Amino acid sequence: MSINNNNITIEHLTVSYQGQKALVNISLQVSAGKITGIIGPNGAGKSTFLKGMLGLLKVDSRTVFIGDQPLNTQKKRIAYVEQRSALDLSFPINVLEVVLLGTYPKLGIMKRPGKKEKEEALAALKTVQLEEFAKRQIGELSGGQLQRVFIARVLAQKADIIVLDEPFVGIDMTSERVIMDILKQLKEAGKTILIVHHDLHKVTHYFDEVIILKKKLIANGPVATTFTNKNIQLAYGDTMGDIIIKGVADT
Ligand code: ADP
Ligand code: MG
Predict the structure, then answer these.
(1) Closest ligand 1 atom, residue 166 Cα
(2) Would the pLDDT of 166 be above 70?
């Protein structure tokens, strides 16, 4: 394995909650420099997969490498935005302060952000088109604005690997387009992007590769060969077959 290989390699990821298995023995690689979508029905274990991969919860088994380095030694290279319902929006913090949090991992625990960090945070807010909201409390933003603030925090963090859990739920089309444009630019700059997403209509537009989960790994790989009707039905069942969403033709 070459030193420049930044693929994420996950082996034997198994997670249980109170003795019930939520994810069973997932092994796969996430390709560096690509946008990978994670899909699967409600409760399939998508959020659990991200948290388990990142070492944010207790797992039954797990080996995760970035290139040839254990993930645990590479955490500063990773930016993670968790699913929004999990966040406490009544916390009194303004937009600029949230974005500045992105600079903390690089600063180290004892340092306060200075002029340089503030300039970087403001530049990130400008990229997501929210510079005039810097002093606004986060509880006073729309869902789409809030998600753009989290993307600004990711930008301020200057991470190589960007992990987003359902970033497009409950947001407006403009915010979704702004965010997706930024993610595509980040990909062009060589970043690795992993997104949990529930809207199957967008899979072929948004992602290069896809991971299809339902407690187990149903399939993963390039969208063109993986996002097939057969795999969609394996994950979602027959009911989805007619309503949706044509996967690419089965081969
Ligand atoms: P998804 O993100 O695909 O909707 P999750 O990863 O959130 O799915 O959840 C997978 C399964 O694990 C679900 O059955 C869910 O109810 C269960 N689960 C998730 N978090 C917990 C928890 N903290 N305690 C107990 N069960 C949980
Ligand atoms: Mg989830």
Answers:
(1) 2
(2) yes
pLDDT bracket for residue 127 (50, 70, 90): very high
Question: Looking at domain 3-240, which CATH architecture does it have?
Answer: 3-Layer(aba) Sandwich (3.40)
- CB of 37 within 6 A of ligand 1: the answer is no
Amino acid identity of 13? L
What is the reported pTM? 0.91
| Pocket of ligand 1 contains residue 44 by CB under 6 Å | yes
Which of 46, 48, 84, 194 gets mutated to test ligand 1 (max ligand atoms within 8 A of its CB)? 48
Q: DSSP states of 89-146 as a string?
A: TTS--BHHHHHHHTTHHHH-TTPPP-HHHHHHHHHHHHHTT-GGGTTSBGGGS-HHHH
pLDDT in tens, 33-45: 999 999 999 999 9
Q: Does residue 165 line the site of ligand 1, with CB under 6 A?
A: no
Percentage of the chain with pLDDT > 90? 78
